[in-house]
C-alpha cells in the first residue's frame, strides 16, 4: 500500500503532554482520520436515503424502503 505523509502544527505543550502519556501520535491521527471519513460517508448515505425516501413517499411501502436501506448498508 502506498503511503502519504501529512503534517500538522500543534502547540509544543500539547505534543509534550501526549508524549508524556505515551500516546502514539501517528496512530491516533490515522485512527481519527479514518473515523472522520466513516462519519462523513455515513452522513452522505443518510442524506441519500432521505432524498430517496422523499422522492418515493407514497409510491413505496415503508417496509420495502426499510429493506432497501438495509441492503444498501450491507453493501458498504
UniProtKB/TrEMBL annotation:
Species in which this protein is naturally found: candidate division MSBL1 archaeon SCGC-AAA259E19
Pfam families, sorted: CcdA
Superkingdom as given in the UniProt entry: Archaea
InterPro entries: Post-segregation_anti-tox_CcdA
Keywords, in A-Z order: Toxin-antitoxin system
Annotated stretches, region: Disordered: 56-76
Protein name, per record: Ribbon-helix-helix protein CopG domain-containing protein
